[in-house]
Structure formats: C-alpha cells, structure tokens
Amino acid sequence: MGLMDNIKQLGDLKKMRDQAMEVQKKLAGIKITVEHKGVTVVMTADQKLISISGEQDFEKITEAVNEALKQSQKVAAEEMKGLMGGMGLPGM
Questions:
Q1: Is the confidence at residue 84, as pLDDT, over 70?
Q2: 89: which DSSP letter?
Q3: What's domain 3-86's architecture?
C-alpha cells in the first residue's frame, strides 16, 4: 500500500465523517411524537427527550418512552442506510 492509497483513505474517512455529521444534524431536527396509554412523549430522532405529558403512572411513562426510543432508532437506521450504502470502509 503506497502513500497515495493512504492519502485516498484519509480523504474517504473525512468524507464519511462529514456525511455522518450531516445525518446527525438531520436527526436532531426530526421530532417523534408517541401517544401510548395516555402518555405523550416527544423525542428527537437522535434520542433527546423533549417532553413527557399526560398520565403520571411510572409504568405507562416508561412504556411510552421505550416506544419513542424504538421509533427514533428506526428513523436513525433509515437515515444511516443512505450514508452506509454509498460508502465502503477503507481496507474492508
């Protein structure tokens, strides 16, 4: 592996990093709202909790937060598909 290959790999890694940062910003801007058993949870797709309202039952709140987390993971996975689909990892 020559010097030019190493430089190309560094360029590829920077491109991947830049694309990952773009996806992270996009995820931060996507809001997910889940209504579950009288509890409403609002969370961003990068899994930052914005608000919880409704029932004050701890079990119901836990279920609603877990459902919001699942949905945020699905959104994040879809967004990452585009990033990973076009980029191969250097050396792999």
A1: no
A2: P
A3: 2-Layer Sandwich (3.30)
